[in-house]
Amino acid sequence: MRRSVVWLLLSLGLACAARAQSPEALNLRSMAAACAQCHGTDGRSAAGSAVPSIAGMPKDHLVTQLKAFKAGTRPATVMTQLAKGFSDAQLEQLADYFSRQK
């Protein structure tokens, strides 16, 4: 019985925490999830990976690189296609998000 009560309280707490996030924050995390496959959760690539970690990089640098991928002026296989799927404003939001990760 005690475990059931604890589980219920924990579940309610998690549900409330999820509701407390703004729709914008949830949308941003959804956009950032597209990066996780290669760059790791929150922009931290796996140790020894050829893919760079982007967590904590300066926002301006990230914006410049993302827009170059989108324009095709920085060649890449996957990044060019991914960047084309986002507006410039969304790329700036992603750059801001990853620049704030530690």
Short description:
The chain is mainly α. Helix content is 66%, strand content 0%. The chain contains 5 helices and no strands.
Plain-language structure description:
- This protein has 102 residues and is mainly alpha-helical.
- It has a single domain, classed as Cytochrome Bc1 Complex, Chain D, domain 2, CATH 1.10.760.10.
- Helices cover 66% and strands 0% of the residues.
- The chain is globular.
- The termini are far apart.
Topology:
Blueprint: H1 2-20, H2 23-39, H3 59-71, H4 79-84, H5 88-99
Helix pairs in contact: 3-5
What is the succession of H and E elements? HHHHH
CATH topology label: Cytochrome Bc1 Complex, Chain D, domain 2
Work out the strand percent. Answer: under 5%
- Top-tier CATH class: Mainly Alpha
- Please state the average pLDDT score: 83
Unreliable segments (pLDDT under 50, ≥5 consecutive)? Answer: 5-12, 14-19
CATH architecture title: Orthogonal Bundle
Give me the secondary-structure category: mainly alpha
Number of strands: 0
Question: What is the count of distinct domains?
Answer: 1
Largest sheet: none
Spatial shape: globular
CATH superfamily, please?
A: Cytochrome c-like domain
Number of helices: 5
What is the rounded distance between the termini? 41 Å
Task: Work out the helicity level.
Answer: 55-70%
Primary descriptors:
single chain; 102 residues; mainly alpha; Cytochrome Bc1 Complex, Chain D, domain 2; 5 helices; 66% helix; 0% strand; globular
